[in-house]
Amino acid sequence: MRKQIMTLTIIALAMVGCNSAKNTTSPTNENNLEGTSEITQSTWELITLQGQPIDQNSTDKKINFQLNEIDKAITGFSGCNTFRGNYSLESGNRISFTQLASTRMACPDALINESEFMNALGKADNYSIEDGFLSLNKTGEAPLTVFKKVTSENLIKEKYWKLKTLEGKSVAMADNQEREIFFTLKNDNRVNGFAGCNNISGEYTIEKGNRIRFKNMATTLRACPDVDVNESELLNVFNTADNYTINGDVLNLNVGRRAPLAVFEAVYMQ
Questions:
Q1: The whole model's pTM is what?
Q2: How far is Cα 164 from Cα 81, in angstroms, rounded to an integer?
Q3: Cα–Cα distance measured from residue 86 to residue 93, given in angstroms and rounded to the nearest whole number
Q4: Which letter does DSSP use for residue 32 in this model?
Q5: Is the Cα torsion angle 163, 168, 174, 178 positive or negative in sign?
Q6: Does the first or last residue of the chain, that is N or C, have fewer Cβ atoms within 10 Å of its Cβ?
Q7: Do the strands 43-49 and 64-68 form a parallel or antiparallel pair, or are they unpaired?
Q8: Are the CB atoms for 129 and 146 separated by under 8 Å?
Q9: How far apart are CA 244 and CA 269, in angstroms?
Q10: Is the separation of the CB atoms in 216 and 244 below 8 Å?
Q11: Tens-digit pLDDT profile for the chain (270 aa)?
Q12: Angle at 47 (CA atoms; ends 186, 153), nearest 5 degrees
């Protein structure tokens, strides 16, 4: 009888210990935070800085940022330079940005004071989202910056994407090549472009989470024996890619989470 009591006591204590562990363990990983998907799965375009409105209607390259859930990085464009850093999210809409760094181009006609913008990001400790508008705030102060939500589809469509690297190798235009390799996604879900010798065409679909699929990709049938370009490699990128990422004016076509299949740069026509 005494052995039975001791056994039951041990089992009861074990159950209490398990329940206690369950009750005292709370999700601290930001992947488990509720309500963070909107801020991390969107592109945010600047509309006010330190209370001053910013009109970007006349600019092709918008001041914006994105948060990458995979590597916890913030990337964006600050009016002249691209920037990158790290971010962390905590419960209660707490946010912080660290290790912010940017390229060092000089743009005397830049739309904003970039250092003021970067300082605002560095000061932010909380955020709020309402009706598609994001405020980055410092506790006890007026909003540092306000952004509007831009879908990634708007960033990739109707742009001239020039090929920069293919399977990790830089692409240079041959002297006798008719024009540079590029593609454009039209609003009617058509693809057109140039593969180095032939024109390319096809169709595409975009889904939530930066998922993309190309289909019915084809080229014209010209022969260019003197042009050193393997068009089949580019076509294979379109046939293989299943997602994309955009950082400023740089577009990566990817498959899964592997290294980019191809990297493109946006070119703005005058």
A1: 0.57
A2: 19
A3: 16
A4: G
A5: negative
A6: C
A7: antiparallel
A8: no
A9: 23
A10: no
A11: 444 444 434 444 344 344 443 343 333 344 445 556 678 868 899 999 999 999 998 887 889 998 888 778 998 999 999 999 999 999 999 999 999 999 999 998 889 999 999 999 999 999 999 999 999 999 999 899 999 988 667 789 989 999 999 999 999 888 888 899 999 999 999 999 999 999 999 999 998 878 999 999 999 999 888 777 889 999 999 999 999 988 778 999 999 988 899 999 998 765
A12: 20
* Burial of 20 per CB tally in 10 Å (0-12, 13-18, 19+): exposed
Structure tokens at 243: 């997602």
Say which residue the tokens 């369950």 belong to: 22
Q: Are 208 and 38 in contact (CB under 8 A)?
A: no
d(CA 84, CA 248): 10
Q: Of 77, 99, 101, which Cα lies nearest the Cα of 86? A: 99
Would you give the DSSP letter of residue 141?
A: S
Euclidean distance between CA atoms 84 and 98, whole angstroms: 9
Asked if 73 and 57 touch (Cβ cutoff 8 Å), the reply is no
Q: Which residue has the tokens 């009617």?
A: 188
**Rounded Cα–Cα distance for residues 70 and 248 (Å):** 18
Angle at 16 between CA 14 and CA 22, to 5 degrees: 105
Report residue 169 as tokens: 């190798």
